[in-house]
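Lab meeting notes turned into a lecture example. A postdoc, R.K., suggested we walk through two folding results consecutively so the class can see how the record format repeats. The first protein's sequence and structure tokens come next.
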Amino acid sequence: MFEINFANIFNQTKIISGITKRNIINFSPYGFSISPAGVFGEEVASKGRKYFAEYLKKEYPSIKKLIYQKQVHGVQIEIVNSDSIEGIEQEREVRDGMICFEKGIVLCVSLADCAGVLIYDPVKGMIGAIHSGWKGSSQNIAGKSIEMLKKNGSNPKDLQVWISPCASGKSYEVGYDVAKLFIDSGSVVPLSSASVKGESGGKYLFDNKKQIKNQLLSEGIKAENIEVSEICTIIDEDYHSYRRDKDKSGRMCAFIGMI
């Protein structure tokens, strides 16, 4: 059995969405991955992308295409459609977010400890899938995606959002170089006196989920329309975590599609 954690906030008769787990039993010794990283080479990752595409299409016959991307921790978001490159065996397009208006297209985001932000507009019939690690969050890629949806006719009050399992504020330790980007937002907690003083050697806990949620709220999305997964990828070994496993960590797939 292929294990997936499905999002609950979306209407499951209209939306297929969630995140793949490591699936160690069926993909030993290190699990299932859709992106090359560490012990996972490009050939293995390409097979993973192909496997997942075939799996979803079998489970949901209305799905026409899965679209993968090559992420660079930037803020490039593109509108994709049935003519876009799938990224299964061929070169993946470079970007960190996608928006789509078509049914049958599944948007796929590659994750370990970074957050996947899945968005659905049930009124306009639009979806979005965003990759937001600390670099993306520092540049407000989630907010930028909402702005892009607004330009294409979405009302933020209609949008529903799922923030995927990712490194949590309980375990995501960062240095001052990262923490300084978020101190004014209240998303970091100092761990030492050096941290409190803002010294370069200080350590902090960074809550990326809180940071992203606040960015979404600032764009006008209703709090009740945001579901935040409580799962921490560093703690829960059912999920890949680069922080925990280093080069033995693969990449999960956070996905969303209109069916």
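The second example is placed directly after the first for contrast:
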Amino acid sequence: MSSLPIAVIQTCSSTSPDDNIACVENLIQQAVAQGAKWLVLPEYWAIMGQNETDKVEIAEDFGNGRLQSVMANWAKRFNIVLFGGTIPLKSPQKGKIFNSLLTFNPAGECIYRYDKVHLFGFSGVGEKYSEADTIAAGEFLPQFQYNGIKIAQGICFDLRFPEFFRRQGVFDIFILPAAFTYTTGKAHWTTLLKARAIENQCFVVAAGQGGQHESGRRTFGHSIIIDPWGEVLAELDDNTGIAVANIDLNQIKTVRRHLPSVFNQRTGCLKMKGVENNG
């Protein structure tokens, strides 16, 4: 497979899982009608609660739950690979969930799970977030391939840790569901995503939340697909919708042949050399 039609789905999720399911299904239908074979949902697509604890109340056991059944059905019904944004899965820690990205193949099977590792914390004018209050951090580095395509995965705040993705090896596509706040997104979203595409010489496919939510939180949107040279192939504004791009996987080889920086990294084998200063 050299050509791959891929879509990002952007929502302004509400406090109602029923409404959010209906919204996402409609957007998936639109994306499939435009030829998309791989689809990426945003973080927290199923619920953006009035309170941070609302997602804990709907957490599911892994492998059993309504949200997982809905996503499995979408993947099978529409014959797509579905990167299921994030949903809350139960964790061993009382009062906390895992914020988990589940991937489904066209048979409706869950073929990979990644639990968010880096938990968002932010304090600004009129804003304060602390995911660690309700989310247990994941403990495993993603290592995933599908049909010979190497795929890096991250969730939202993970984006700010480039070493996290370098440790995932040399990959072809970087998948990122997110719910960046408007404040941090306006400042850093596109810059960070382009940097990840350029430094890893890969396609970046990032699906975000966008708009004003019932809790008062405003998310940045601007879901985007970027090529290995850092060029934007498709992008949304901050409204609910879809963006589709037909990515050419051969471009990865071309970019790496002309500028093989992804293969020239030597920092892992360098020795530390300091200078003692006695005043």
